[in-house]
Specification:
7 strands; mainly beta
C-alpha cells in the first residue's frame, strides 16, 4: 500500500515523534481527500466557538486550533502537519475537522488534545 503522505509530499520527511501543539504563526500543511494539499498558518491554539451545521443545528466546538489553510467537503479527518521550511521534517499536529469560507479559516483537533481525551500515546512512523 502506498503511503498517502509520502506520495503526496515526496520532498518531505515524516518521522517518529510524539505529537506537539503548534504555536500561533506555525506553518501548517493539511492533506485531504477533496482538495489534496493546502497550507496556511496557525491563527489560534485553543479556540471555542459555535458552528451551525445544517443537519444537526448549533454545535459548540471546544479548544481547537484554527488556521488559514483552505479545505473543502470531504477533507475532514485529514492530517495536519507543522513544517517551517521546505525539506524540514513534517510533524503531525492535528486532525482537520471543519472550515469556514468567509473568511477562509479551518479548524483542527490538536493531537495532544486527542491523546489527553483518550489516553493514547501517538507515535508516527
Amino acid at each position: 500500500m502506498t503511503d498517502p503522505v509520502r506520495s503526496a509530499w515526496p520532498a518531505s520527511t515524516v518521522f517518529s515523534k510524539l505529537a506537539v501543539f503548534a504555536v500561533i504563526g506555525s506553518h501548517v500543511i493539511r492533506i485531504g481527500g477533496y482538495t489534496a494539499e493546502t497550507a496556511g498558518t496557525v491563527l489560534t491554539v485553543c479556540s471555542s466557538f459555535d458552528v451551525n451545521y445544517t443537519d444537526v443545528g448549533w454545535v459548540r466546538i471546544l479548544c481547537t486550533m484554527t488556521a488559514s489553510y483552505a479545505a473543502g467537503s470531504g477533507d475532514s479527518g485529514g492530517p495536519v502537519f507543522e513544517q517551517w521550511e521546505a525539506g524540514d521534517p513534517a510533524i503531525p499536529v492535528g486532525i482537520h475537522i471543519g472550515r469556514s469560507s468567509s473568511p477562509v479559516k479551518s479548524w483542527m483537533s490538536p493531537l495532544n488534545g486527542i491523546d489527553a481525551d483518550f489516553g493514547w500515546n501517538w507515535v508516527f512512523h
